Amino acid sequence: MNNPIYNSISALGTLVTNLVTGAIRFYRRYILFGIKNTIAKFIIYNKESFKSAKTFIKRAVVFLLIASVITSVVVIANRTSTKISATEVVFDGETVGYIKNSDDAEKIKETTLKKLNTNKDLEIKFKNARTEPYNIISNEELSDNLVKVIAPDYIKVCEVYFDDKFICAVSDQLTAHNAINAVLENEKAKFPKAAVSFNEKITYRYAYYKSSDENIWTKDRLELAIRGFELLTPQHVECETKISKVEFETVDIETNTLFIGDSRVRRKGQNGSEYVIDLVTYINDKKVMSQNLTSLSIKAPVSQVVERGMRAESISMGGYTVTQTSGYFCWPVVGLHVVTSPFGWRSLGNHKGIDISGANASGSLVVAGASGVVTEAGWSTGGYGNYVMIDHGNGMETLYAHMLDNSLMVSAGEQVTKGQAIGRVGNTGYSFGAHLHFEVRINGTRVNPAWYIGLEQ
Ligand SMILES: [Zn+2]
User: Fold this and answer.
1) At 366, which CATH number?
2) CA of 430 to the centre of ligand 1 (A)
3) Ligand 1 centre from 437 Cα, in Å?
4) What is the pTM of this model?
């Protein structure tokens, strides 16, 4: 061990050992105190720790108690709350609103896409949720809300249609109404007493337009368009009054005191009058419709009462029997029924009437074919001999000729009734044997009497 380096290190080791030993010896008291102190502190620390653990448990129990009380309160409160189950609609993490029925989800989605005019599948979520009833909105409102959220540059506008023809869109219905009304007020000023409106059907429809859409007009633009292009036709309805005639009615009364075909006015009819109020519609000053609103009677009409003859068979009249025919006139002679010469051409010329005769003709009673006024009764220079002419009204006249001298029973101006005896069959004037020459004239023209005494139909 004579290596100098080893010797040096050994010497240094001894020195260090001596120094450490010396230091331990010197500091022993302090080191022991440090250890003792550390243990004591550990015990103290642990004591604190145990104490706080106890506190923690105590506090935990209290906390749990409070928590359970709160939970119970919340549960009970929930049970008694008015919340109902609903469907929450969410777009892009944002609640858009609540709807009642989840079945409407697809429909709402569809409506919304339609409003936005897109087919793009939008991530609209529908979740089951509970909410207060007042949070529930209609499908339409919800769809509107969705549009606002999805497309903030879209605005709700009011489309204006005249007779189903699209005119424009305005911000809202009131704007459209104000524009139309401004034009209407102008028309009203022209017809202060009339009810003025437009002839066209005006309809509004809400829709979504991009706010920059050029179909969105202002009130002024719509008003100018209506005025400038006459998009609407003004009409005015006025109350018009007048007095008008009310025509009388004719009431028929059947009577056996007259023959069939005879009639007699029992009461003359009188027209009445009434005050008529009409609602008259004008378009461009042209009357297009008149509707009677009411009529007030001023004077009631008086019905005309007419007696119409019902007597059909031959009847006895003061000792003689008149034969009723199916024609207008009764048979003009009593007891004679043979037509010896008809109306029309014959060897003696044109016959303007018919001749009636039979056995013991002379002296048979000649009767008025219908009631009327005797216009002529006397001697004819034209060949009729003793004759009578009767005016029956309505342009009808009858003539009875060749009667016996001094047999005429009526005179001009006298009123006669149907079947009334006016004379007797004779052979006076241009005549070859006792007969009655009978004529019927319509408006002065002699016609075939056969038609009027039931011989020909
Ligand atoms: Zn004749």
Assistant:
1) 2.70.70.10
2) 9
3) 4
4) 0.39
Q: Are 326 and 257 within one domain?
A: no
Q: How far apart are CA 421 and CA 318, in angstroms?
A: 10
Confidence at residue 12, expressed as pLDDT on a 0 to 100 scale: 63
- In the reported structure, the alpha carbon of residue 341 is separated from the centroid of ligand 1 by a whole-number distance in angstroms of 7
148 with 190, same domain?
Answer: no
Residues 359 and 427 in one domain: yes
How far, in Å, is the centroid of ligand 1 from the Cα of 9?
Answer: 199
- Ligand 1 centroid distance, CA of 321 (Å): 23
Ligand 1 centroid to Cα of residue 351, in Å, is 6
Question: Domain limits at 225?
Answer: 158-232
What's the CA-to-centroid distance between 346 and ligand 1, angstroms?
A: 11
The Å distance, Cα 327 to ligand 1 centre, comes to: 20
Distance 319 CA to ligand 1 centre (A): 27
**Ligand 1 centroid, distance to 313 Cα (angstroms):** 27
Residues 318, 435, single domain; the answer is yes
Do 122 and 171 reside in the same domain of the chain? no
Same domain, 104 and 146: yes
CA of residue 336 to ligand 1 center, whole Å: 15
Taking the centre of ligand 1 as the mean of its atom positions, its distance from the CA of residue 354, in whole angstroms, is 5
How far is the centre of ligand 1, averaged over its atoms, from the C-alpha of 77 (Å)? Answer: 125
pLDDT digits (tens, 9 = 90+) for 308-358: 766 655 556 677 888 888 789 999 999 888 888 989 887 777 899 999 998
> What CATH code is carried by the domain that includes residue 261?
2.20.230.10
Cα 325 to ligand 1 centroid, rounded to whole Å: 20
Residues in the chain with pLDDT values less than 70: 1-32, 34-35, 38-51, 73-81, 119, 256-262, 309-317, 456-457
